[in-house]
TrEMBL record:
Pfam families: LRR_6, NLRC4_HD2. This is NACHT LRR and PYD domain-containing protein. Signal peptide: none annotated. SMART domains: LRR_RI. Keywords: Leucine-rich repeat, Repeat. Residues 7-105 form the NACHT LRR and PYD domain. The keyword Cell inner membrane does not apply. The keyword Ligase does not apply. InterPro entries: Leu-rich_rpt, LRR_dom_sf, NLR, NLRP_HD2. It comes from Sinocyclocheilus anshuiensis. It comes from the Eukaryota.
Length: 376
């Protein structure tokens, strides 16, 4: 760096040439330590700073032409580099130069909601990332379906990779039915690990997640800095192995998750592992959906036991489309507990017998003050 910017070697450089040398040097930096310096340097090209710059560095007075040359050079670099972080910094550089052409173009796409129909170049995608990162409103919720054409499109994962810097900063990430692959899930998990404390909601429903993908996501949840509150994994093909990884993560970091949807995954007796999580006094889970999960009598017994141990947090439980039969009597014992705060209970198509229904009615007579909704 010192050799590149020795004053004696810059006497005959125009400001545009200096800028280009600085851009090149910053892009070669592996850790981005020159990014802020580059922005500062480009900010000095503002007309009001020129006199000071001439006196200190003996450079030729810059003109609007030199700034245009610099902007053109930066745009060329944006088109050729793969690093989202470096692209974002170059957009900050264009901002310092007062060039907002690429950004305005993308803002129009976003304004009229037709981004998914557009065939964007790499520089335009970089502009999308920059615009979203500098817009707090857009960072509240990230929806991949706003940027892709059709669900389960093979191109979706390319778009996901381009937008990972935005995902890292978003509070809610909606990826339902987007064709998330193992590779895409690995990239997502890596992005979330780098900033685990920001995300509050994650929806990966209707994506086929293998056990390897579930393990990667579980590693994110296990991070003590992870503050995820809502996780939706409906129709994800979660296996026993995937459920075990998830349960292990929640045992390690159980105090933040408030809502979990694992509906339409053939969990079977794996539900017992989730029951161990519910039994943890630190578990704050309020909503648990396990509809059509193949919950067995044994699984239902484990759930009931867990809720007896820690009855005061769960507010909503959905066990619809599971053949529970007389196991419902075990849940009735939970409802009878005066500390039970359950407000919504779904038992649709669960094969509830007359005996089970009688047990439910008896429990509700004993503790009628909390349950607001019962679906049989």
């Amino acid at each position: 760096m010192k050799e590149e910017f020795q004053l004696s070697s810059l006497k005959h450089f125009s400001l545009s040439e200096l800028h280009q040398r600085a851009v090149k040097e910053a892009l070669q930096s592996k850790n981005g330590h020159l990014d802020l310096f580059l922005r500062f340097l480009l900010g000095l090209s503002v007309e009001s700073h020129q006199i000071l710059l001439q006196r200190i560095m003996m450079l030729k007075r810059s003109s609007s032409d030199s700034n245009e040359k610099t902007a053109k050079y930066i745009k060329k670099k944006i088109r050729t580099i793969d690093s989202p972080e470096k692209s974002i910094n170059l957009f900050h550089c264009l901002n310092e130069l007062g060039d907002h052409s690429l950004v305005k173009e993308i803002q129009q796409y976003l304004k009229f909601g037709n981004l998914s129909e557009a065939k964007l170049s790499s520089s335009q995608w970089a502009a999308v990332v920059f615009v979203l990162l500098t817009s707090e409103e857009e960072l509240n919720e990230f929806r991949l379906d706003k940027f892709v054409k059709g669900m389960n499109n093979p191109e979706n994962m390319k778009v996901l990779h381009k937008l990972l810097p935005v995902i890292k900063e978003s509070r809610s990430v909606q990826l339902s039915d987007c064709g998330v692959t193992d590779k895409g899930c690995a990239a997502l998990a890596s992005a979330l690990r780098s900033n685990p404390s920001h995300l509050r909601e994650l929806d990966l429903s209707e994506n086929k997640l293998k056990s390897s993908s579930m393990k990667l996501l579980s590693a994110v949840l296990e991070d003590p800095h992870c503050k995820l509150e809502k996780l939706w994994l409906r129709i994800c093909g979660v296996t026993d192995e995937g459920c075990a990884a998830l349960a292990s993560a929640l045992r390690s970091n159980s105090s933040h998750l408030r809502e979990l949807d694992l509906s339409v995954n053939k969990l079977g007796d794996s539900v017992k592992l989730l029951s161990d999580v519910l039994q943890n006094p630190h578990c704050k889970l309020e909503i648990l959906w396990l509809s059509d999960c193949g919950v067995t009598d044994e699984g239902c017994a484990a759930l009931a036991s867990a809720l007896r141990s820690n009855p005061s947090h769960l507010r909503e439980l959905n066990l619809s489309w599971n053949e529970l039969g007389d196991s419902v009597k075990l849940l009735s014992d939970v409802l009878q507990n005066p500390h039970c705060k359950l407000e919504t209970l779904w038992l649709r198509d669960c094969g509830v017998t007359d005996e089970g229904c009688a047990a439910l009615a008896s429990a509700l007579r004993s503790n009628p003050s909390h349950l607001r909704e019962l679906n049989l």
